[in-house]
Amino acid sequence: MFLSHVWGLLFHPEEEWQAIRKEHCTVTRCYCSHVLLLAAIPAVAGYIGTTQVGWQVTARELHRLTPDSALQIAILFYITMLVAVFTVGKMIHWMGQTYGSKQSLPQCIALAAYTATPLFLIGIMLLYPLLWLNLLLGLPALGHTVYLLYTGVPVMMGVPKERGFLFASAVLAVGLVMLVGVLAVTVILWGAGIGPVFAS
Known about the structure:
This protein is an all-alpha fold. It has one domain. The chain contains nine helices and two strands; from the N terminus they run H-H-H-H-E-E-H-H-H-H-H. The protein has helices at 6-11, 13-23, 27-38, 40-53, 67-96, 105-115, 117-122, 131-157, 161-191; strands spanning 55-56, 62-63. It has a two-stranded antiparallel sheet. A hairpin with a 5-residue loop joins strand 1 (55-56) and strand 2. The N and C termini lie far apart (45 Å). The mean pLDDT is 92.
């Protein structure tokens, strides 16, 4: 069922992880019922926010992107999120042997996908790209994502909580390294002239 676990992950995650584990979700089903839909929220909201609303750096300047430029960025952002979920899931699967877990790749990708739920949902804030508001709303969502990771790893990977804490910490480190890598590639592309085009 589409988005069947969103409510549970937000309000009673420990019980919801048990339900997710029992489903033995395939990669295709996980993506079709969860990731493809939720990852579209920040991409679409960002497109609308940057083309219709715009943002201000100073009190006088309002910046908007051209529709073509914003569409290109939104599509690349969407693809990046889809690839990131798969990559983190693959890394979880690879690291599982170190922590005594022999879960299947689909189970690991499901862990990565469902852990990202709060970040996908809070992407709606990009409709109004105001920096202080985005930070105010984004930090609690980030905190809940980390909480989901730490509660989900022991359940989904079948390891004791003590070992799960270390495992989740390693996954978090991988996620941060990936984020830095994406930011570095973005800076390189912008420096090469492949960047946003501002509307006049």
